[in-house]
Structure to design on (1082 residues):
């Protein structure tokens, strides 16, 4: 399926007094559109329009920019912006401004704004703004990662397939694996930890999808690999190349989510057996991993939690262990961000990103997620509807019920609406429309009446009538052979006469 | 999911994260809100077989259906989420292979009909019970690898009197109840594995190490069940706890496998012995039924010496149990493993079997493929007490019951049921449901007969092997059987698990639920190869006709000159030459 997507990003560039470059083409305020073309494959391309509005600061913005630090300025400016998703505001501050620390020329705040140090004329400002918009909205790599199904193999980096497919909801399951309940009585206060660390992030992400969180404790659940004993450190080691074999035996115990169809994110906390502890994970170079954790793309993460061995060997078994949830949740939250593709990319050194704080992710990171998911949803809808159309083409006499047809119409209409909204720069409504399109198209595609096995293939119909066709074909073929033979003889006869 | 897993493993990447070690929060000694008790009951049966009943009970002091709980410890998450998501108040699922022979084996601790049985009470908040029921059976079929997804409106009924909630319930509006039996279901290893996976210790420790599939299915009767119900949290019953009871009953034919001896041991039956209790269990016990039969004592001998003896009145009989407590450290002092053995001191003649007070048989009679008759015989062998019994019959729609032919005869006289509920079948949508409350006089046999007509099915409605016949599920008998010995009111929490699933109302009677044999009925079955045969035959005839007609139309006739003849003629002439006869 071919697809041409247009993404519009409204960007406001606000010049503080003393920062206006001398070589502006027009007097302020003015509008300008910049285009960027991202080609995913031969038939899919994405055009992005940056609708730039250049203006001067208002009096209140000037007052906000007078703050002592960039963080305070960001907080004050947040109150003055329109909060629509996907729009960006960039404040250009004078070159000599003390708002930004030394050596830093771009500061990205917690919300949808950034501070840019002026200097170097309009051209330098333009390149900087372009870099900044790509960080805060989408870049060629994030768009092609979202369209990874259409990108030919080998054209993507290893990280591009790491993050989760867009879905209407996700189930997050925390599992505590205790393979040795005779020696360790492990307790974790997961309820409190979820409320304290995970829920704020999920509240923020609730715009993207529905989340449900649950947890379980699995006893006698062992990893699929026997760790190697290392004499030097008197510990057990799991090497990086054996990690792929760790998950499969555990997976059988995790239990699928029977009650919903959403993808599951698994976070496992593994307390090694007494005979195998302490257990450390080694990376590819053989160095121990500081967090003792690893993650598997689109699946989840595993962390190994070693129990401190008591000083006296006669300590009564089972040993009571209370898991330090803060340490564990820190790792799991970082893995959660990675799985959603929210890893912070390599940036030039003059960029400074504000840490998102307790909420776990900044507003512009949410926007990034929404851009990527909207694009991915539209691509999914077009793929689903294309394969549905292919199926219908293949079986001529398939019955299409009215409700299936209406779902298809709805999916197409929603997808078109999503495209239109994207082209206008309305990220939120575009995302909603794309979600509806996905729901409708999947419902149509997975309708039980559209099972191709319900229809007799034509070759089998032919096979049934073989007893008719075969005896009928014999005299016809024989007489055809006879005609050919006679024709040949007739051709030969005149030469014979000579 | 499989391909996703592969992709996930294939793309597995190391993640290096910098983690700051936070302060350790000391929060020890939280109260446990869930508990596991495990129990094995070994009872020698009169005919020389041995029945082993495993019961694993997980009790959770939490409010499941509110959906507030999502953090699981001992209670399996798969079932907990199911109960919460679909508004289940009570769930009973049994998968059974074989038939419990009540006449030879006595009253079962927990019987189940052959095949799969599922009955569920939903919460009053559930608006569309049928939809929830459909969804539930589909999910359970996934969890237990059973064909429960074949439960639909044609085999689901809503009994009005037979299946009352076993747990806490306010109000018994039977519209919230659904009951279905799949008698054709075959139970095997693939159903046992997910069942074992629900146990907190799996089959790695505790009594569950004995659950070895190759032994369990080499038996005369195998029944595994899951019961979920709300129970009182304490005596005051102000809060609700949830109970998951996993039971498994097997009957081993020790008589034929043990060279005519009735001695048995754990190792002989399961080819394993017990080495420890499940470390998560608060109670782990093995009970052996050593009740003296026929007043003769000291007939049998169990080794090792049991930790204690337990006396209880179970199903109207006084029973003595030898108890082995796996949690007591003294048990494993002398030997590392526990192998319970039972020896008979002298050969016991099995001529006089104690006949259970209530038992029943059912069979189908009649000849031909048009009509037939279902007969049920219910025996009450109590010498002087009469008692009522609720009979539930579910008959598929393709057997059209003639209700006017229903006769109930006891001791040669007609017996009028005091309650009757009949829901006629509708073709292809719902089965017949017949419920009756029948009074059984003392020492009597009651015969219930009803005639039916066999319906013709559409050719797509036949099961894969239609000449095998069609199953009609067992009928269910529920009764409060008067007890010969009065029973004490015991503390439910402390008594052995096998006594406490059915609530007993008072000391003078006990609850029994019996299932009769499933029936196998032949329906008029067409010859399924006939359409193809007809096609073949007509095609051949048409083809032959066409061939000769075509031949006639296309052939050109011309006079053939006599030729020197073919190979046969030449051969004949050579032979003639040898014989000296003139050639042809």
């Amino acid at each position: 399926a071919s697809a041409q997507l247009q993404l519009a990003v409204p960007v406001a560039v606000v010049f503080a007094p003393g920062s206006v470059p001398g070589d502006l083409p027009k007097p302020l305020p003015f509008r300008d559109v910049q285009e960027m073309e991202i080609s995913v494959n031969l038939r899919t391309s994405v055009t992005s329009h940056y609708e730039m509005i250049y203006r001067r600061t208002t009096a209140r913005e000037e007052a906000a920019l007078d703050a002592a630090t960039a963080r305070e300025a960001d907080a004050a400016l947040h109150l003055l912006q329109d909060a629509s998703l996907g729009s960006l505001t960039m404040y250009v501050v004078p070159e000599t401004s003390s708002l930004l620390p030394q050596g830093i020329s771009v500061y990205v705040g917690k919300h949808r704004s950034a501070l840019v140090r002026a200097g170097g004329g309009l051209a330098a400002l333009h390149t900087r703004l372009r870099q900044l918009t790509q960080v805060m909205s989408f870049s060629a790599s994030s768009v092609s990662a979202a369209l990874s199904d259409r990108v030919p193999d080998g054209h993507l980096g290893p990280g591009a397939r790491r993050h989760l497919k867009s879905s209407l909801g996700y189930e997050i399951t925390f599992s505590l694996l205790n393979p040795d309940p005779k020696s360790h009585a492990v307790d974790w206060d997961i309820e409190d930890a979820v409320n304290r660390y995970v829920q704020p992030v999920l509240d923020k992400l609730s715009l993207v999808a529905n989340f449900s969180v649950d947890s379980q404790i699995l006893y006698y659940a062992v990893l699929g690999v026997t760790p190697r004993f290392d004499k030097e450190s008197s510990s057990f080691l799991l090497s990086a190349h054996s990690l792929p074999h760790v998950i499969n035996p555990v997976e059988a115990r995790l239990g699928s989510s029977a009650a919903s169809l959403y993808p599951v994110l698994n976070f496992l906390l593994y307390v090694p057996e007494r005979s195998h502890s302490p257990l450390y994970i080694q990376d590819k170079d053989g160095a121990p991993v500081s967090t003792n954790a690893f993650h598997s793309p689109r699946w989840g993460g595993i962390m190994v939690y070693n129990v401190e061995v008591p000083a006296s060997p006669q300590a009564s078994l089972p040993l009571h262990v209370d898991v330090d949830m803060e340490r564990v949740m820190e790792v799991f939250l970082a893995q959660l961000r990675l799985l959603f593709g929210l890893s912070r990319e390599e940036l030039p050194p003059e960029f400074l990103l504000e840490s998102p704080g307790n909420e776990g992710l900044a507003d512009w990171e949410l926007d990034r997620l929404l851009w990527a998911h909207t694009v991915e949803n539209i691509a999914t809808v077009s793929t689903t509807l294309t394969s549905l159309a292919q199926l219908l083409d293949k079986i001529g006499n398939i019955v299409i019920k009215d409700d299936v047809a209406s779902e298809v119409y709805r999916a197409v209409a929603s997808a078109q609406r999503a495209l239109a909204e994207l082209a206008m720069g309305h990220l939120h409504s575009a995302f909603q429309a794309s979600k509806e399109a996905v729901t409708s198209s999947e419902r149509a595609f997975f309708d039980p009446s559209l099972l191709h096995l319900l229809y007799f293939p034509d070759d089998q119909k032919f096979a049934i009538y073989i007893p008719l066709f075969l005896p009928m074909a014999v005299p016809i073929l024989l007489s055809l052979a006879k005609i050919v033979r006679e024709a040949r003889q007739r051709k030969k006869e005149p030469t014979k006469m000579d | 999911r499989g391909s996703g897993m592969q992709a996930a493993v294939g793309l597995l990447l190391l993640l290096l994260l910098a983690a700051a070690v936070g302060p350790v929060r000391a929060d020890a000694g939280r109260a446990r809100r869930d508990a596991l008790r495990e129990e094995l009951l070994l009872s020698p049966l009169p005919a020389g077989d041995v029945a082993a009943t495993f019961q694993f009970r997980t009790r959770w002091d939490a409010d499941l259906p509110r959906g507030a709980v999502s953090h699981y410890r001992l209670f399996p998450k798969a079932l907990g989420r199911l109960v919460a998501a679909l508004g289940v108040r009570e769930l009973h699922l049994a998968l059974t292979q074989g038939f419990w022979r009540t006449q030879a084996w006595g009253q079962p601790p927990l019987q189940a009909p052959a095949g799969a049985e599922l009955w569920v009470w939903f919460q009053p908040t559930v608006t569309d019970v049928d939809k929830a029921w459909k969804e539930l059976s589909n999910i359970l079929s996934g969890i237990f690898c059973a064909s429960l997804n074949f439960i639909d409106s044609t085999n689901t009924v809503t009994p009005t009197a037979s299946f009352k909630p076993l747990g806490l319930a306010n109000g018994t509006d039977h519209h919230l109840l659904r009951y279905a039996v799949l008698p054709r279901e075959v139970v095997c290893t693939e159903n046992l594995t997910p069942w074992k996976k629900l146990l907190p210790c799996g089959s790695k420790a505790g009594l569950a190490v004995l659950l070895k599939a190759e032994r369990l299915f080499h038996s005369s009767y195998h029944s595994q069940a899951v019961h979920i119900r709300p129970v009182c949290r304490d005596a005051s019953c102000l809060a609700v706890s949830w109970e998951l009871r996993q039971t498994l009953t097997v009957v081993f034919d020790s008589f034929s496998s043990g060279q005519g001896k009735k001695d048995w041991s754990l190792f002989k039956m399961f080819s394993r012995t017990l080495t420890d209790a499940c470390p998560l269990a608060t109670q782990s016990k093995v009970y052996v039924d050593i009740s003296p039969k026929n007043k003769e004592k000291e007939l049998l001998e169990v080794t090792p010496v049991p930790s204690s003896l337990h006396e209880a009145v179970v199903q109207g009989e006084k029973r003595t149990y030898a108890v082995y407590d796996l949690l007591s450290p003294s048990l494993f002092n002398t030997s590392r493993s526990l192998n319970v053995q039972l020896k008979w001191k002298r050969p016991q003649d099995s001529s006089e079997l104690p006949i259970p007070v209530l038992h029943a048989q059912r069979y189908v009679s009649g000849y031909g493929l048009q009509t037939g008759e279902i007969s049920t015989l219910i025996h009450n062998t109590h010498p002087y007490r009469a008692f009522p019994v609720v009979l539930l019959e579910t008959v598929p729609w393709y057997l059209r019951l003639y209700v006017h032919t229903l006769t109930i005869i006891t001791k040669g006289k007609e017996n009028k049921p005091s309650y009757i509920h009949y829901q006629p079948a509708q073709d292809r949508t719902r089965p017949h449901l017949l419920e009756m409350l029948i009074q059984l006089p003392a020492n009597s046999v009651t015969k219930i007969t009803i005639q039916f007509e066999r319906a013709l099915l559409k050719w797509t409605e036949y099961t894969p092997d239609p000449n095998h016949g069609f199953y009609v599920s067992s009928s269910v008998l529920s009764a409060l059987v008067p007890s010969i010995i009065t029973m004490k009111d015991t503390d439910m929490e402390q008594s052995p698990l096998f006594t406490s699933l059915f609530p007993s109302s008072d000391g003078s009677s006990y609850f029994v639920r019996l299932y009769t044999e499933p029936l196998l009925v032949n329906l008029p079955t067409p010859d399924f190869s006939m359409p193809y045969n007809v096609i073949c035959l007509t095609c051949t005839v048409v083809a032959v006709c066409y061939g000769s007609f075509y031949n006639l139309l296309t052939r050109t006739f011309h006079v053939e000159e006599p030729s020197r003849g073919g190979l046969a003629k030449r051969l004949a002439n050579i032979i003639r030459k040898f014989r000296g006869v003139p050639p042809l």
